[in-house]
Amino acid sequence: MKKALVELWNGNRFPLSNHLKQTEEEKKLMEQLATYHSAMVGKLDNSEKENLKRLADCYSELLATECENAFVKGFSLAVRLISEALT
Known about the structure:
Elements: H1 2-9, H2 24-41, H3 46-86
Helix pairs in contact: 1-3
């Protein structure tokens, strides 16, 4: 079951790109993130830029893993609740 849920999460069972739309608040936050990132990168030397990139890459990988796990756990809980409601 977990493999199927991971495939669903990754968009392999239902293409997410066609159905997810950013809210205005999310768009604003993304713009702020880009602004702050540009300001910070402009003040760093090459070594510091590389360290910042590695930090961001690690954070992105961790966040993706945590989101995937939360999705699988939440979906599994929903199925258990539905099963219990039907018995």
